UniProtKB/TrEMBL annotation:
Ranges annotated as spanning the membrane: none
SMART domains noted in UniProt: HTH_MARR
Highest taxon above the source species: Bacteria
Record-level Gene Ontology MF annotations: DNA-binding transcription factor activity
Protein name: HTH marR-type domain-containing protein
A Pfam family recorded for this sequence: MarR_2
Domain HTH marR-type: 32-133
Length: 154
């Protein structure tokens, strides 16, 4: 007997499940993009966050925005610093929480990974409707920002 798909009582719970599944699938498909960089998942996540940030983030800010433990982000940031991919600078707002800045080498590594990821994405194009992908990206960004605003208000 074939099991029927479980319909969550709340659409957000269904979104969480589908997001976890999609994240796992995308990570496996795009793992080759960072293969030459020797970065692990956590280091890649932190490097992305630092390079793409509008303002230099702290470890705690990255942890909160990614839903990861501060300690995990700190270990990744230390590794990236030791590899010369990011720098830690004094934070005028908090003595013990340095600001993370990408180094030119860190930016180069991130861009090289992005170029390899673009090639992988191009190979997937026949299977994907790019307008759907763009619309989904915008919708997910809007949901994330609403959740973050709600959590900050608490």
């Amino acid at each position: 007997m074939e099991a029927e798909a479980f319909d969550s009582r709340h659409p957000l719970v269904g979104l969480v499940d589908e997001t976890i599944r999609l994240n796992s699938r995308l990570r496996s498909v795009f793992a080759a993009a960072r293969q030459d960089s020797a970065l692990n998942d956590s280091e890649q996540m932190v490097l992305n966050a630092v390079v793409e940030a509008e303002r230099a983030p702290t470890v705690a800010q990255i942890g909160r925005s990614m839903g990861e433990a501060r300690q995990l982000v700190q270990r990744a940031a230390n590794s990236l610093r030791d590899a010369g991919l990011i720098e830690m600078a004094d934070n005028p707002d908090h003595k013990r929480a340095p600001l993370l800045h990408p180094t030119p080498r860190g930016i180069d590594v991130k861009r090289a990974i992005d170029q390899r990821a673009d090639t992988i994405a191009e190979d997937l194009i026949p299977a994907l409707d790019l307008d759907d992908v763009r619309g989904t990206t915008e919708a997910l960004r809007a949901i994330r920002r609403q959740l973050e605003a709600r959590l900050r208000a608490r």
